[in-house]
Amino acid sequence: MAKLAVFYSRADKNYFGGSYRYITEGNTEKAAKMIAAAAGAALWVLQKLP
């Protein structure tokens, strides 16, 4: 049976410690990659609608 890990992670401009910073990979994406690797699953990223 095929395995699929689906996630949405908000990478881009984020607010940290009183200022905005640009991040390329959100925490949810990091966790999803670890889960997919452990489960041998493919990754599917849900895209933000415009």
Describe the structure.
There is one protein chain. This protein has one helix spanning 27-39; strands at 4-7, 12-16, 19-23, 42-45. It is 26% helix and 36% strand. 2% of the residues are buried. Strand 2 (12-16) and strand 3 (19-23) form a beta hairpin. With 50 residues, the chain is α+β, with helices and mostly antiparallel strands.
What structural class do the secondary elements suggest? Answer: alpha+beta
Q: Which outline best applies?
A: elongated
Terminal CA distance reads 34 Å
pLDDT < 50 runs, ≥5 residues: none
SSE sequence, one letter per element: EEEHE
Instruction: Please give the radius of gyration in angstroms.
Output: 13 Å
Largest sheet: 2 strands, parallel
Strand percentage, roughly? 35-45%
Query: Number of helical runs?
Result: 1
Number of strands: 4
Strand order of the largest sheet: 1-4
Specify the helix fraction band.
25-40%
Mean pLDDT: 88
